[in-house]
Amino acid sequence: MRFLADPKDDLALVTLLRSPFFALHDRLIHELAQEERERGTSWWELVRDANRSQLIPVRETLEKLLSQRRVEPPTALLKLADRLTGYTAVIAISLGQSAERQTGAASGS
Asked: Residue 34: in which H helix or E strand, if any?
């Protein structure tokens, strides 16, 4: 979670936004990239200042994580991020769907 170490790291934030932590759609990422070019601001400023409904929970989660980054160890921050975003559930569902596809392919379904 490089973004928590350096909120000015745009690449780290975009990677985090696309990850299972937030799973933002590429279309939204693309729209934000266009805004970033037009406004000349950082990605964090775009997310922080955005009024888009999809970004409100993202902003709130990142603000909570940023507020704890200097007092909590990385493992606690990861646990907090997991709890706030449902990351583990997303991965479990994804792995379950993958296993179902493999089982179905093996049985000829």
From this structure: helix 26-39
- Count CB neighbours of 18 within 10 A: 15
3-state SS assignment for residue 86: coil
Helix (H, G, I), strand (E, B) or coil at 22: coil
Q: Which long-range contacts (CB under 8 A, 24 or more apart) does 56-61 make?
A: 58/17, 58/22, 58/24, 61/22, 61/85
CA distances in angstroms from 80 to 35, 64, 68, 107, listed in the order given = 30, 9, 9, 40
pLDDT in tens, 29-44: 999 999 888 888 899 9
pTM for the full predicted model? 0.78
Q: Tell me the CB-side half-sphere exposure of residue 47, using CA atoms within 13 A.
A: 23
For residues 74-87, average pLDDT: 92
DSSP codes of every residue in 87-100:
HHHHHHHHHHHHHH
